[in-house]
Amino acid sequence: MGKCDGRCTLLVICSLQLVAALQRQVFDFLGYQWAPILANFLHIMVVILGMFGTVQFRFRYLIFYAVWLVLWVGWNSFIICFYLEVGNLTQDRDFLMTFNTSLHRSWWMEHGPGCLVTPVLDSRMAPDDHHVITVSGCLLDYQYIEVLSSAIQILLALFGFVYACYVSKVFQDDEDSFDFIGGFDSYGYQPPQKSSHLQLQPLYTAG
């Protein structure tokens, strides 16, 4: 019963992670945030692998999933520090998120709740094929939306790590106990021996 509860809980956590990652992937695509897009893609693949390992009783897949979650927590912690400009990190370094391929920032910068976008006409600050805008009236600034999204990812990852370790330990214990009982040891199952019987029949010849 405990193993079933643990598996079901882990599947629920993985499902929530999958929904949160897909939602985040959509908005990162809209904002051309290539580094988060790549990280989200890898995360989605590993979460699917973790769900497969949970359903198919593959504890090695769950170990890989748990190791990835440690890296995922580190990545999201970096995003939080980046948007809060902790230490030497600054949002002026756009190449960290876009690989220096565009000047786009978070999609939430212009589309946050209550944000009013006003284009600045005849601005000399705008490079070619770009325009300068001012954003005002936001109920919640875009950096705090990104921080909140990363915090949710970290919270789900911590729960997923704990349950992945627990379920993988249960799977491993079950596998060890099966080997100890001796499903295929020398005193267990033995195939039936083939016996060969030759029945002699009298030979009649015509006289």
UniProtKB/TrEMBL annotation:
Q: According to its UniProt record, where is this protein located?
A: Cell membrane
Q: Does the keyword Ligase apply?
A: no
What Pfam families would the database entry show?
NKAIN (PF05640)
Q: Please report the record's description of how this protein sits within the membrane.
A: Multi-pass membrane protein
Please classify the protein's predominant subcellular localization into one broad category.
Answer: membrane
Q: Name one GO biological process term.
A: regulation of sodium ion transport
Q: Which UniProt keywords apply?
A: Cell membrane, Glycoprotein, Membrane, Transmembrane, Transmembrane helix
Ranges annotated as spanning the membrane: 34-55, 62-86, 147-166
Residues folding into a coiled coil are none
Q: Which PANTHER family match?
A: SODIUM_POTASSIUM-TRANSPORTING ATPASE SUBUNIT BETA-1-INTERACTING PROTEIN 1, T-CELL LYMPHOMA BREAKPOINT-ASSOCIATED TARGET 1-RELATED
Quote the protein name from its UniProt record.
Answer: Sodium/potassium-transporting ATPase subunit beta-1-interacting protein
